[in-house]
Write a structure and sequence with these properties.
The chain is an alpha/beta fold. It has eleven helices and eight strands. Helix content is 42%, strand content 12%. Helix 8 links the parallel strand 4 and strand 5. Bound molecules: zinc ion.
């Protein structure tokens, strides 16, 4: 059976794209366009696109206030709460989109815990969602829910969250303020949203315009901190809004720098046989093509790392 490798499992649902209103300022087409690129450009059999189920609401309660969950599901958030989340105007599909997106993250997490290697969800990385409110395009915090699901339901002892998005993972940090079983590491730009930062276990803060070298140095520091925690699972928020072409991020990282970032994370995870879930995160280049290039690089690299991990000798 030499050379048999299992494909990289990647969760996607059409509502990831269509659940956002076409007139929303958020570039919803990035999801379906990325799917089309990956299905066209990935080596045959390298990626297995899977359809998520809606998450069980009880799973959301692991990281979120039950009243907030109920109010969102009943369409009862007020205008200021919706405005803080963004993605407006909302459609009725926003609820199903959110539950499928969270389901994809949880299913990707269960998969790597059971089988090892890498998995991914082709949306999410919703690190600005707090316990009882959403913010910055994030309704619920998939990283936090998956970390707590892995500990309480799957029996893991420790989970590390490595957040390399240009924006700080403030929701994740606040949810895990008093949780020693979860390590939060955030590499981000000092002057990007959120303007009131939370306190992660480790905040590696970069000045605007830092460029590749500083970003890669901070990435390596973040990886070392995560591995030093000796986690059973790594959750990787892989936002590419640190790109110089990004309309929101200010870090001026090149496409090649992002590729090196991905290699640092995936090589370290593979070398230590660390089950790893890739959460897509932010990316808002105008036009969106530079973002799609970087996300395509990301998931192709994840698929290649997964193949190397799971190929039988
Ligand atoms: Zn971001």
């Amino acid at each position: 059976m030499r050379g048999e490798a299992t494909p990289f499992p990647l969760w996607y649902h059409p509502l990831y794209t269509d659940g956002i209103h076409p007139e929303a300022r958020f570039p919803r087409d990035r999801y379906v366009r990325l799917l089309n690129r990956l299905t066209t450009n990935a080596p045959h059999g390298a990626i297995d696109v899977r359809t998520p189920h809606a998450v069980q609401r009880e799973v959301l309660h692991l990281a979120h206030d039950a009243t907030y969950v109920e109010r969102f599901l009943n369409g009862e958030l007020d205008a200021s709460e919706e405005r803080r989340i963004g993605l407006r105007p909302w459609t009725p599909d926003m609820i199903e989109r959110t539950m499928r997106l969270m389901g994809g993250a949880v299913e990707a997490t269960v998969h790597v815990v059971q089988h090892g290697g890498f998995s991914g969800n082709m949306a999410g990385g919703t690190h600005h969602a707090h316990r009882d409110f959403g913010s910055g395009y994030c309704v619920f915090n998939d990283l936090a829910v998956c970390a707590l699901h892995a500990i309480t339901t799957l029996g893991l002892d420790r989970v590390a969250i490595l957040d390399l998005d240009v924006h700080q993972g403030d929701g994740t940090a606040s949810i895990f303020t008093d949780e020693p079983r979860v390590l939060t590491v955030s590499v981000h730009c000092a002057t990007n949203f959120p303007f009131r930062k939370a306190v992660s276990d480790h905040d590696l803060v970069l000045e605007p315009g830092s460029g590749d070298d500083a970003y890669l140095e901070a990435t390596q520091q973040g990886i070392d901190l995560c591995l030093g925690f000796e986690p059973d699972l790594l959750l990787f928020q892989a936002g590419v809004d640190g790109l110089e072409a990004d309309a929101l991020g200010k870090l001026s990282v090149s496409r090649g720098g992002m590729q090196q970032r991905n290699a640092l994370v995936f090589d370290a995870a593979a070398a230590s046989k660390m089950p790893t879930v890739v959460f897509m995160g932010g990316g808002y280049a105008k036009p969106i093509d530079a973002t799609l290039d970087a996300f395509e690089d990301l998931f192709l690299a994840a698929a290649d790392a997964h193949r190397r991990c799971t190929t039988t000798a």
